[in-house]
Amino acid sequence: MFESLTTKLQNITGRMRGKARVTDADIKEMMHEIRMALLEADVNYGVVKEFIADMTEKCSGSDIQSSFTPGQQIVKIVRDSLTELLGGEQGEEKLLSSSTGFNTIILYGLQGAGKTTTAVKLAKLLKASGKKPMVVSVDVHRPAAAQQLKVLADSVGVDCYIDPEEHDAVKIAKDGEGKARYMLCNYLIIDTAGRTVVDDELMNELKSVSDAVNPTEKLLVVDSMIGQEAVNVAQTFDGAIGMDGFIMTKLDGDARGGAALSIRKLTGKPIKYICVGEKVDAIEQFYPQRMADRILGMGDVISLIEKASVNVDEEEARKAMERMMSSGYNLDDLYSQFAQMRKLGSLKDLVGMIPGAAGKVNEDELDDKIIDRQMAIITSMTKKERRVPSILNASRRKRIAAGAGVTVTDVNRLMTQYEQSAKMMKQFSNGRGGMKMPKGMGKMMSKMGKGGLGGIGGPGALKGMDMNALGSLGGLGGMSGSEDQDAVSGGLYGSADTVSGLSLPGRRDRKKKKKGKR
């Protein structure tokens, strides 16, 4: 998300970070570049003008000029200003709650914005947090709209009420509310009809539905790919019906991010959730400060931990880690880690959450099919080959490659990474199934930053494909336990400065060859 804007702002702040002295000319040049980057990202011109004026004033203060680290102070100002633009440090907005315990959420939006899918995503998210939601479709205009909602809801085990024979949206809404109360649901999510353009007929229908159910929350689903037009749509809906907040969709696509950066400032209403994929679990609560950190390439370890906590099977990850520590780690364990990684979302999204990794890895080469290909290689092996990888000679690898539809080189690359992971875990093992900690945690973290992450599956391994990196952190299982979160967070943040020095696969090998020739 915000791919182009992120790259530009990282380059700008990166040049400023190490400056020991900052002149007015430096500030003027930086502001010009930031202005151009925001405008190219389709941020509203008025928002950009005010944003730049505010930052210029802060950066020109005497405290900056007298600071020992003026460059870093300016980077902090950019971060804080971006956070404020997105909603402020305390800008994370939760859903409103009714004193009765029964909450009704109505989703509005233009046709194609993703309301139906978003309704189920939100319901699944609420269900995962211990709530009992029901979804209902009052779209009586789009063919099979109700059936689409039903199919999606059934796929995630969420209650759904539809009445395809009824053509009165208000009646369906009332009947759906009655059914939800009868089934003791505490959340009712109403998926309304959309139009390609806003018209009086649509607005009148939406008002009638709203009056009939008296919603606790009215959220507008906004397609981030329509740029500044999203702000116009938001202002129109807010003026006609009244909104409590927004859900931004399609942030995983080619969206330049202008809508998300403009909509809060121009409407005064918060972004409550963002959708970063088509799958039903691709929805996140929106945190302004975390998003600002992602845009500036500072990562988002907290969100990564939360994502792992929800999606990673902690018991399975614990067992895998125990086998790794006892030298029993095999390709079945690696397959299990790949399977858990697939649940965490796209590789690009994961890389963006690792501090210092964004911009250091060519995201064009991060294909989610890579993991499927690696899993196919492992499933082409026999049980014995997976459990005793040492028997994989040349003829066996050739057979495995043919079975998986890949080259022998691909098989060799997978095995090399497996061997590196197993070797590293063996070094940390005390031989009794426990973990032997290095003398200095700082040294280990430094090693992770300078190449260790590349060996165990960090950003350095991503370019070649090779995602054992993230996987070999216990299949990211280490992030799923609360007791390990501080260690993981501290480790990644501690290596943030050194991630930029990560050696991608092949680079270190070339250095060794040159040394050998000498």
Question: How do you describe this structure in short?
Answer:
The protein is built from 25 helices and eight strands. The model is unreliable at 431-515 (pLDDT under 50).
Would you mind describing this structure in some detail?
The protein has three domains: 3-86, Up-down Bundle (Four Helix Bundle (Hemerythrin (Met), subunit A)); 103-295, P-loop containing nucleotide triphosphate hydrolases (Rossmann fold, 3-Layer(aba) Sandwich), CATH 3.40.50; 301-499, 434 Repressor (Amino-terminal Domain), CATH 1.10.260. Helices cover 56% and strands 8% of the residues. It has helices at 3-17, 24-40, 45-59, 62-65, 70-86, 115-128, 145-155, 169-182, 200-213, 229-240, 258-267, 288-295, 301-311, 314-325, 331-342, 347-353, 369-379, 383-387, 394-404, 408-428, 441-456, 468-471, 482-494, 496-499, 507-517, and strands at residues 103-108, 133-137, 159-161, 187-191, 217-223, 245-249, 271-275, 283-285. The protein has an eight-stranded mixed beta sheet with strand order 3-2-4-1-5-6-7-8, with helices on both faces. Helix 1 (3-17) packs antiparallel against helix 2, helix 6 packs parallel to helix 7 (145-155) and helix 15 (331-342) runs antiparallel to helix 17 (369-379). The two termini are 45 Å apart.
